Amino acid sequence: MKKIFIDPGHGGADSGAVAFGLVEKDINLTVAKLLKKELQQYGFDVKMSRETDIYVGLIQRANMANEWNADIFISIHHNAGGGDGWEIIHSMMSNKKDKSKQLAELIGREFTAIGQNARQVSIYSKESINYPGNDYFTVLRYAEMPAIITEFAFLDSNDRFIIDTSEEQEKESQAIVQGIINFTGVKKSEHWAKKYCDYLRANGIVIHEERFDEPATRGDVFALMARMMGYKE
User: Fold this and answer.
1) Which residues contact 11 (CB under 8 A, 6 or more apart)?
2) Helix or strand run (H / E) with residue 65
3) Helix (H, G, I), strand (E, B), or coil: what is residue 54?
4) In Å, what is the CA distance from 172 to each residue of 15, 72, 192?
5) For 204, left (φ over 0), alpha (ψ -120 to 50), or beta?
6) Dist. CA 34–CA 104, nearest whole Å
């Protein structure tokens, strides 16, 4: 099982980019939570640097991933500066550069597939001035596994219209998931309840949606009971 460490950028007093009513730290966290839920459905073991609106130090974020022995480190961010399109920064350090770049390329391909533009230089690494030969970004420098930072959209330009709804944020998380799937080669494991769903269908019960992990409403229960008693649509 692959261990994926998700780092929702910023948090607490550090809001990140703020524009047009959008707050980066909140969008980062929303996308990260969606990402965690979707990755778990594929059988990944997932841990996050924060699951609430708190500040976590940059070195601490990387150390959390290191102590957990994560296989992949992904820091979720959204951009500012009036630009357009996605970019992904990958580690430049020799022990993890190739894998980090490969992961960045695979996720970037999925960002483009859902309609986001790729910037002119969309995938790159950045060298530290103070630590030559090491990454400029602290989380990439200290994370010991393949590590990337995703910047999906600019919040302070018209680019915000590709990320300003919950549906669009879910698309972003799904694109990251698909990139990770392509990187790891992991296939989605069958849900434990699917065999029961298949049995009911085989015995004449009409099931329109396979919502295995969502709570059933009273309406759902009444509909199921009625169908079991012979009710026909």
Assistant:
1) 25, 28, 29, 50, 53, 54, 55, 56
2) helix 58-67
3) coil
4) 20, 18, 27
5) left
6) 19
- Going by C-alpha positions, the residue among 132, 139, 67 that lies closest to residue 100 is 139
Reduced to 3 states, what is the DSSP secondary structure of residue 114? coil
Give the pLDDT confidence of 110-135 residue by residue, as tens digits.
999 999 999 999 999 999 999 899 99
In this prediction, residue 58 carries a pLDDT of 98
How far, in Å, CA of 43 to CA of 2, rounded? 8
Looking at residue 232, its pLDDT comes to: 73
Q: Are 22 and 155 in contact (CB under 8 A)?
A: yes
CA-closest candidate to residue 35, choices 130, 107, 120: 107
Residue 204 CB neighbour total at 10 angstroms = 10
pTM > 0.85:
no
Identify the pLDDT of residue 1.
Answer: 61
Q: How far apart are CA 152 and CA 159, in angstroms?
A: 10
Radius of gyration of the chain (CA): 20
